[in-house]
Design brief:
The structure is a homodimer of 264-residue chains.
Chain A (H helix, E strand, L loop, with lengths): L1 E2 L17 H11 L1 E5 L1 H9 L4 E6 L8 H6 L4 E3 L2 H8 L8 E5 L6 H5 L4 E5 L5 H13 L4 E4 L9 H6 L3 H4 L2 E3 L6 H7 L3 E5 L6 E2 H5 L5 E5 L8 H6 L2 E4 L11 H13 L2
Parallel strand pairs in A: 1-4, 3-4, 6-7, 6-11, 7-8, 9-11, 9-12, 10-12
Antiparallel strand pairs in A: 2-5, 3-5
Chain lengths: 264, 264
Amino acid sequence: MVELDDPGDPRLADYRDLRDVELRKSLEAEHGLFLAEGEKVVRRAIEGGHEARSFLMAPRWLDGLADVLELSSAPCYVLSEALIEQVTGFHVHRGALASLRRRPLPPVDDVLAGARSVLVLEDLVDHTNVGAVFRSGAALGFDAVLLAPRCADPLYRRSIKVGMGAVFSTPWTRVPDWYDALPDLSRRGFTTVALTLGPDSLPIEEAVAGVDRLALVLGSEGHGLSSRWEASADRRAVIPMAAGIDSLNVAAASAVACYAAARR
Amino acid sequence: MVELDDPGDPRLADYRDLRDVELRKSLEAEHGLFLAEGEKVVRRAIEGGHEARSFLMAPRWLDGLADVLELSSAPCYVLSEALIEQVTGFHVHRGALASLRRRPLPPVDDVLAGARSVLVLEDLVDHTNVGAVFRSGAALGFDAVLLAPRCADPLYRRSIKVGMGAVFSTPWTRVPDWYDALPDLSRRGFTTVALTLGPDSLPIEEAVAGVDRLALVLGSEGHGLSSRWEASADRRAVIPMAAGIDSLNVAAASAVACYAAARR
C-alpha cells in the first residue's frame, strides 16, 4: 500500500490518459500490459490468474478488494479520486484500477480442446462490441472465442468492462492464418456458419440445426465479413428481419445467433 | 444556406456542447428540440415528418443532403469542420447535424392501434441501450414502443444515432400512469411478459408461445424491473443462460427476446 499525492509520479505511468485510444494501444503493446477497471472486473482478472503489475485505488475502494490485494505482491497506489482523475483523464466511476501483465496467447489447439460452440470474430473494430460478444457468448453457452489477426483487442479496458470480465473466463486466442482460418476449423471437425446478409444464407436456426461442433463466424461492424471468409465458411446464415430495416448491430446479432445456436 | 465563421454566433445555440448530457437535457426540454446527427439519420428524421429548426453542416456534407435541404424552409448554417467542433465540443464524424422540433407525444391508443408486438421499457438510463432496443425491435418485427415516465429519452442524440433512426419509423409514446401501466395493457388485450431473473420465470420461448398481442417488458440496466411491474405483468420470462454468468445486458437481452417473440 503506497499513498501518493503527485499525479505526475512515474509509478503511475501505466494509468495515463485512459481515454486516448491510440496512445493506450501503443503503450499497452510496448509494455505488455492491460488495464482492468471496477471492483468486479479487477477481482475476476486476478482470480483468472492474471498477474498484477500494480493497483490504483481511491481510499474508499480498498475495503471491497482487501482480499484480492492480499493475494498479490504488486504495489497498490492509493490516490484521492480527484488525483486519479488527473492521471487517467476522466472520472473513474468504479474506483478500482489494476494494471496486469499480458500473457502469451495460447495455441488454437488448447483453446478448442473440448469446445463444442466457438465464436469466431473477424475484424471488429469497436471495443464495446468485442466485449458485448464475449459477454453474450459466455451467457449463452459458448465455450471459446477465436479472433482474426486484426480484430480489436478483447483486453482493451473498455472491452473488458463491457464484457464484465468474460474475457477472463472464456478461453480465447488469435488465429495465426487469416486466409485459411475457416477451412482450418472445418478440418478440425467444426461446421463454420458465417452470419451474413448474402443471398444464399439460411435462417440461423436452420443453419445450425443438427450441428455438433459449431463455429459461429461474425464480421466487422461496417462491411461485415471479408469475401474470403464469407465464401470459405461451410454455411452462411441470416437472422430473419423485417423488410426495409437496417440489419441488427453486431452485438445484437451475436446475441440472437448464440441463442439460436445454444438451442440446436 | 447561411455561411458563418463565428462559432459564438447565437444562431448556433441549438448545437452547443453536445457532450454535456445534463446541459443538453435541460436545453432540449426548454426549447422543445432534439438533435439528429449523420446524413442517414437526418434524412430519416425529415422523411419521418419532423420539422427542422435549422441544419448545421460542413461544406462537404451539403451534396449528400441537397434534396433533404430543399424540402425544408429551415436555415442551413455552413461552418468549417474545425469550427463545428468548437461549437459542439467534439469532432462530428458524420458531419451533418439538424435541430428538429419535438412534437407532442401521441396518445397510447394511437400507438397501439393495430400493433401486435409492443416493447415496453421501464427505467432504462443509458441512451445507447434505448437506441439499441428501438433498432432491434424494428429489425425483429415489433410494431410499437411504450416508455415508462422516467425511461431515458429516445430522441436524445445518442439514442437516435445508435438506433439508426428507428425512433422515427416506430410509433412510440410514454405511458401516463406508471403504476397501472401493465394492467392497463392487459385490459387492452395484450399479454404482458416481463423479462426478469425472478424465480417464477418461464423460458422466453415458452412464455410467448401462442400469445397473440404481446407486450414485452424490459427493466433498467442496474436493478431490472421495479417490483410493481414485475408483479403486475401477466407472465415473467427469462432467457436461459449458462450457470454462474452475469445476465445479458439489456440490449442483448432485448434482441434475443424480440427474436424469440417474432417466432411465436
